[in-house]
Amino acid sequence: MSSIPTATRRRVLQALGVGTAAIAGCAGAPGAETEQPTERTTPQEPSMNPAQQTDVDRIAADPTDIPAPIDRSEPKTVSVEMTTKEQVAEVEPGVTYTYMTFDGQVPGPMIRVRRGDTVELTITNEAGNSMPHNIDLHAVRGPGGGAEASMVTPGQTKTFRFKATYPGSFIYHCAVPNLDMHISSGMFGMILVEPKKGLPEVDHEFYFGQHELYTKGEAGEEGHHDFDIESMKAEDPTYVLMNGEKYAITPDGYGAPSMNVGETARVYFAVGGPNLDSAFHPIGSVWDEVWPQGATASDPHRFVQTTPVKPGSTVVATLHAEVPGPIKLVDHALSRVARKGMMAVINREGEANPEVFQPEG
C-alpha cells in the first residue's frame, strides 16, 4: 500500500483550486478547499504491510554533489530544470516509504546563482505521479515565491523566470495544499545566491538537509510505512532525518565525506521541517563562523557551539580540522539522534596533533 493516495481528477482540481494561492506563499487561507491525504482506504499497520519493492537504491543526497563556486563578475541567465518524483525507498533497512522529491533526492539539488542573475526555472511533474506539485523559493520576489507559476499536474511542465535580487542561502519547498505532508515526504532544498564578490574560499563545501517523517509505524518497525497526518498534526515524528534516511551520511551508511587536518570546510544546512527547529551542532568541533538564516551579507557569529535553525530556513557555517577523527553533525535535541536517525559524519584525516588533543596520557 502506497504512502501516497491514488490520484483522482477531484484531488488534482482541489490542489489547483481556491486555496492554492494563499497556501503557496506559506500562509493559511481560512475556509480554503485543500486536497485531503486521508481520503483513501485506511492503511493497515506497517507490521501487517510488507516492505515494498524500492524504486531507487538511495534517496539521500550526496553532500558533496553541489555546484562549484561562481567565478564570474557579470550577471547571466541561469537555466535550472527539476523533476518532481514520487518514489519508494528505504528509510532504513527493512523500512520503506513513498517519498516525494525534487530530482529523486533529499534534500533537493542545490541551486547556485549570483546576485543579479536571472533564473529560468523549469519544473516537470513526472508522469505516473499521483499528485500535483510546485516550488516556492524564498529567494524569489513574486507571488508564492513562484509557487503559483509552477503548479504542475502529473505529466505537465512549466517554466518561469525570476531575478536573484538579494544574496544568501534560502530554502525552497513544495507549496501545494497539504504542503506540510509534501515537505515531510522530502520536497525541500536550498538555493544559494552568492554575493557579487563571491564567498570566501574554502577547501571543501558540504550540503545537508533535515526533515521529519510522520508514519503509522514506530522507528525501526519493518514494513512499508504509510504517512500519518495525525502524528504530523501533533508534531510527533517517527523519524528526524539528515538527507532523507536514517544515518545515511555515516561510515555505516553510504560513507562519510572527508577533509584533511589543516583544511577548511563550509557547510550549507537546510531545515525543511515541516515543524521542528534544529539545534545544529558539530560534535568534536565548533562552528568557526555562522551566518544565521543563511544571511551571508551580515557579519558572522564566531566560535558557535550550537546554532538554532528554524523550519523553512537555512544556515551557512564554517569549520576547520585541527585533529583527526569524526565530526558528527547532529540536532542537539539528542533523542532525535539516538532514537530517530538524525546524524551525519564528516571525517577528519591526517596526523595527530597532541598539542590540541591527546587521547592518552
Automatic annotation (TrEMBL):
Binding site for Cu cation 1: H133, C174, H182, M187, H332
Entry-linked InterPro entries: Cu-oxidase-like_N, Cu-oxidase_fam, Cupredoxin, NO2-reductase_Cu, TAT_signal
Enzyme class: oxidoreductase
Residues binding Cu cation 2: H138, H173
Positions of the UniProt region annotated as Disordered: 27-84
Pfam families: Cu-oxidase_3 (PF07732)
Domain Plastocyanin-like: 88-197
Record field: catalytic activity: nitric oxide + Fe(III)-[cytochrome c] + H2O = Fe(II)-[cytochrome c] + nitrite + 2 H(+)
GO MF term (any one): nitrite reductase (NO-forming) activity
Subunit structure: Homotrimer.
Name of the molecule in the record: Copper-containing nitrite reductase
Organism: Haloarcula pellucida
